[in-house]
Amino acid sequence: MKRVVKDPDPLVRRRAMFALAQMSSDLKYALAGTLEPLRRMDQPGFDRRLFYRATFALERFGPQAQAAVPDLIASLTSEKFVGCVYFAAEALGRMGPAAESAIPELSMLTNHTHNAVQDAANLALRQVKRKIR
Fold it and tell me: Within 13 Å, how many C-alpha atoms sit on residue 60's CB side?
């Protein structure tokens, strides 16, 4: 499956990511496939739809996907792909307190120029802080 996520055909990659999102039995295997699109944001040929599918998969895993937190935090700084920032914030929120290290970056997004990103950041902050207190 990891090889399919790197397939040159974008449709094949997206379908593979969707399949990974459905797999909850082998978290390590699925995480390996979902992290790759997050790390390609600044590279040529970046596929936003694949990124969205990856964040969807990470949302489904919730706190168990804590290994993805650093890559999601790095995604929050994109000025070029606002949708990616939105979905990364949403995925971090679904991880709850496991994404505590994202609080400074999420806090900065509460003043973002796009209202949807502000809303996603505010919700994510509430979810991340929910059980930290």
Answer: 20
